[in-house]
Amino acid sequence: MSAITTLDGSFQLHNGVKMPYLGLGVYLSENGKEVIQAVEWALEAGYRHIDTASIYKNEEGVGEGLRHSGISRDDQFIVSKVWNADQGFESTLRAYDESLKRLGLEYLDLYLIHWPTKGKYKETWKALEKIYAEGRVRAIGVSNFLQHQLEDLLTEAEVVPMVNQMEFHPYLVQQELLDFCASKSIQYEAWSPLMQGHIFQLEVMREMADKYGKSIAQIVLRWDLQKGVVTIPKSVKKERIISNADLFDFELSAEDVAILDGLNRGKRFGPDPDNFDF
């Protein structure tokens, strides 16, 4: 793994595409001024990776923020996801085109299956493989896939997913899943890295933040990167967006990484990929 020393750094996906290891998540960011500003502030601060999804209903605003930023499209890494109701072969192809239209883009850098919808995700994956084979997307992957779902997908996949975006934080490390993804060269990515705010209540986090002279959020996000996990903290506040990127002037010791790993309790704050009903 390359040294994690700059905001413009990246991890290389198994097809050679470089994915910036820090991005801005825009879940729950309101379409219009709120998300436009968040995207502009992030790009101004040096972020190049923006993660959205059709279900977030803010792709238009993200696209506007990208265009206003003045940052060349070649230097942006833009991600969206196909929603569960759109899964299936033809409907996924349509959903991809609709996301591009809303974003005002000609291609995405990464397109993900948002959830492993039973009986549908293999057909959905075939659609992603088609888009990828046609050169209309630079990389394809999945989100919220556990090991058994990945193994099932791989029985028929022609292309191994390049990314698996999962709920990931000190209470939900899922080291076996991390190791499985690594064995298949699937890049792991974190959503909800701050445990939906619960991370700020932990005494051990306060102590570690004091030790390094950093914020609790910065400690956790640095831990993500040192674990080889791409992370996309979400915020619509300018100072928080800037602060979340201030991760490159310190390094957690191996002992402190192990302490954070040891907080694991298999606890989810979001839905269970084995038991969701949407």
Automatic annotation (TrEMBL):
Q: Which residues form the NADP-dependent oxidoreductase domain?
A: 32-264
The entry's keywords: NADP, Oxidoreductase
Enumerate the InterPro entries for this protein: AKR, AKR5G, Aldo/ket_reductase_CS, NAD(P)_OxRdtase_dom_sf, NADP_OxRdtase_dom
User: Which CDD domains does the entry mention?
Assistant: AKR_AKR5G1-3 (cd19157)
Q: Give the Gene Ontology MF terms in alphabetical order.
A: oxidoreductase activity, acting on the CH-OH group of donors, NAD or NADP as acceptor
Q: Which residues bind substrate?
A: H114
Protein name per Swiss-Prot or TrEMBL: Glyoxal reductase
Q: Which SUPFAM superfamilies match?
A: NAD(P)-linked oxidoreductase
Q: Where is this site: Lowers pKa of active site Tyr?
A: K81
Q: Which organism is it from?
A: Aureicoccus marinus
- Stated family: Belongs to the aldo/keto reductase family.
PANTHER family, per database record: 2,5-DIKETO-D-GLUCONIC ACID REDUCTASE, NADP-DEPENDENT OXIDOREDUCTASE DOMAIN-CONTAINING PROTEIN
- Give the annotated active site: Y56
Check the record and name the Pfam families matching this protein. Aldo_ket_red
